[in-house]
Amino acid sequence: MAFLEFIRLDERSVIEYVKGVPELKLKLKLELDDDKKVTVKEIGDGNLNFVFLVSNSGASLIIKQSLPYIRCIGESWPLTKDRAYFEAMALEEQGRLTPHHVPQLYHFDPTMSLIAMRYLQPPHIILRKGLIAGIQYPLLARHIAHFMANNLFFTSLLFHSTLDHKRQVAKFCGNAALCRHTEQVVFSDPYQISEYNHWTSPYLDPDAEALRQDNLLKLEIALLKSKFSEQAQALIHGDLHTSSVMVTPQSTQVIDPEFAFYGPMGFDVGAFLGNLMLAFFAQDGLVDQPDDRKAYKEWILQTIEDTWNLFYNNFVALWDEHRNGAGEAYLPAIYNNPEVQLLAQKRYMTELFHDSVGFGAAKMIRRIVGVVHVEDFESITDSVKRATCERKALNLAKMLLKDRRKFESIAEIVSAIRQF
Ligand code: ADP
Ligand code: SR1
Ligand code: MG
Ligand code: MG
Predict the structure, then answer these.
(1) For a tag site, which of 164, 253, 268, 280 has the least CB within 10 Å?
(2) Do the bridges between strand 74-78 and strand 105-109 make them parallel or antiparallel, or are there none, so unpaired?
């Protein structure tokens, strides 16, 4: 079979596909007719795409295919399959900047809207599942801080000339349909009546209604929506929640950058921190006694604090190191004394902190009243318990969205979380 036009792959046709691509055959150590031992399993548990694990006596790889709609909704919600192209480009760029934290891209096929990449083998699991199981990851904060600081710094105007920056922005601006999707499900639908919204009803009915009546909240979400749509600050992953990270205690791998584009840095930092906050609030619902996960909740809070602080330190260190490079945001001739340099960094990092808190809060809200929720809460079977956990997370998120500028440090955010 030649695969000259797009067809949806299944567990059988994937083998035919792989046999037709020399570099994949080589990866799988496939000789001419030696495909009898090849096994294929569709392992996709994400919301959008189909993911096949292909193995041949010890060698494995992943094939991820995008169909022209959203997998978890169905054909009634079309979405361009060009997203595979942006995922391939982002994997390449992130792989160049942070090779230890991204699966290697083996192959991209624009006709078939698919990518092939390294299989992250067990014991790697999706971080969200690890958080639900109560597993601690001692290197997580350090690794994610490194991933975010390097990818965000080296794709920003702090490192690029304005000409280079615009060239890079242009490469990703075609991912507009996925941005538009985010605009709808993160910044619009939770604040209006939408056929897609749902929540733990009837318990959260008044909470969902209150969101739609909260004028201050609406003003703040509008500011963030503008920033998301207008600010080409850096190449962001665009969907950096805890199901986009695979982990072992020693390894942290970021997957699934199909939403990548040049957007505000805080959207990535906030996505990660906000999803850790959701994991924190789910803990009491996941166990019989609230105190059963006391130590684990402390570890999550510490990870929130460490992630931001390490990110801050890494990012500022990169800035200091490259201060006299090609970056044109702060020209050395103008920002020519330690005092103004320090002031510039403080202002930049404070705005990034407030953006991260705001975007993180918006991401929390969408996962409680929007179209697709998170397994952290969905695996709480008792709906009264689930609603109680969700309400705490929702109330924290509303407060953070409205009052984010009052916070000066991540330690203050962690103190606020403890009060809910
Ligand atoms: P979606 O875009 O649909 O969310 P993901 O890229 O998140 O798809 O992948 C869905 C699932 O497939 C992940 O949750 C993970 O279990 C598995 N997966 C994806 N990429 C890999 C990989 N490189 N190695 C191992 N498993 C993977
Ligand atoms: C229908 S919303 C599906 C969501 O899953 C992806 O991971 C993105 O977050 C998207 O918004
Ligand atoms: Mg995913
Ligand atoms: Mg995805």
Answers:
(1) 164
(2) unpaired
3-state secondary structure of 268: helix
Across 340-362, b (16+ Cβ under 10 Å) vs e yields ebeeebeebeeebbbbbbbbbbb
Task: Check if 103 has its Cβ closer than 6 Å to any atom of ligand 1.
Answer: yes
Q: Is the shortest distance between the CB of 127 and ligand 1 below 6 Å?
A: no
Query: d(Cα 420, Cα 406) in Å, to the nearest integer?
Result: 17
Contact (Cβ atoms closer than 8 angstroms) between residue 270 and residue 359: yes
47 close to ligand 1 (CB < 6 Angstrom) = yes
Domains assigned to the chain: 13-118 (3.30.200.20), 125-418 (3.90.1200.10)
Sequence-distant (6+) residues with CB within 8 A of 379 are 132, 282, 286
Question: Which atom of ligand 1 approaches the CA of 71 most closely?
Answer: 3
Ligand 1 mutation target, pool 91, 181, 240, 255, most atoms within 8 A of CB: 255
User: pLDDT for 233-266, tens place per residue?
Assistant: 999 999 999 999 999 999 999 999 999 999 999 9
Is 72 in contact with 372 (CB distance < 8 Å)?
A: yes
| Ligand 2 close to Cβ of residue 185 (< 6 A) | yes
Measured CA to CA, the distance from residue 255 to residue 195 in angstroms comes to 30
Identify the bridge partners of residue 125 per DSSP, sorted by sequence position.
Answer: 247
Would you state the pLDDT for residue 339?
Answer: 98
Instruction: For residue 321, give the H/E element and its range.
Output: helix 294-321
The burial class, CB within 10 Å (0-12 / 13-18 / 19+), for 139 is middle
Tens of pLDDT, residue by residue over 17-63, are 999 999 999 999 987 556 678 999 999 999 999 999 999 988 999 99
> Would you say the ipTM is above 0.90?
yes
Q: Does residue 365's CB lie within 6 angstroms of at least one atom of ligand 1?
A: no
| Ligand 1 atom with the shortest distance to the CA of 124 | 25
Distance from the alpha carbon of residue 47 to the mean position of ligand 4, in angstroms: 7
